[in-house]
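Query protein
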Amino acid sequence: MKAGFTALLLLLLALVIRIAIAVQGIHGTDVLAHVNGTRSLLLTGSPYCRAYYNYPPLYSVIQLPTILMFGWNSLGYKFMPVLFDTLLSIALYMAVKRVVGSEKLALAVQLLWVFNPLAIVASAWYGLFDSIPTLFALTSLLALMDGRSTISAILVALGIVTKVFPALYLIPQALYPGIKRLKDFARYVVIAVVVSLALWLALSAKCFSNALEYQLGFHLQRIDKGLSLAPYAPYSAILSLAIPTTILTIVALRLRKGFLNNKQYLIVTALCTVLLVALNPFIYPHYLIWFLPLSIIALVQGYREKGVVIAVAITLVLSAISLTYWKFYKVEAIVSVLRIALYTTLVMMLLILIASVIEPKNKY
């Protein structure tokens, strides 16, 4: 009970910190693009009719209530990214408590996210919403591990219609051992696909051609690589999703056959999410949020107290790379150094996570 109360206090602390920063004003251009899409949704019923909105449509719906509540200002624009990033801290607490069985380690991980510079700046300063699909993806996995496959499928769908990357988890999670029969596998996939398509079509149908052009055209014509070292070619972003999905699907099949355990599945899920980002021809600092929560959970699961120390170090390094990029993104010499630093960190993460999979003394 005491740990639960502390977790609640940390949740409130995270919210206060982020709101205090969020109200400082509008920073960067992305939040303005989000708002334009939400305004278009309010006026026309679709974010694509009166805005060049190159995201999946669900965030425009998520953002609208707080804009109507707080007004067309920085708090209204940023409140949902701030709220979901705050909720991500409690999701981390619950996940670590579940897979490790230690409230002390769970609180340590929650505290790490409360003060995570990358998460704070992304959600509260720039108003970026990557914590939202990340939270959907993480809670989907937790729901699946608790035997709630329908809820898990719906959460994956919500993640996909917010940002595409949670599609990585759809087929592998449908193959999870708790889903025993073929019809249950089909049911999971159908629920996720139908919910995703229904939401996307409902919010895109009014300006369908715009929706296709803005989402596909933008990503096929991008030039700026951000922090990526991966080679660019048309559709290479799709390849960056397909490769880790294939790997994770194979791992899920091995898990079903009893060759792997739950601990190994979670760690490989984290590995594949890191790989998804590393292979992407476009990497911006907020993309690192996609894999960081799962990686933190996997590290603590594999190494316990040492895992917390490793997670803190990695979080600080990634935050330093990200904050430096946001400040000097126009200076190519600095960006080139940051790219090397990022990929060095990602390789180290992968090696550490792989070691935790094969370490015999770390049994789930």
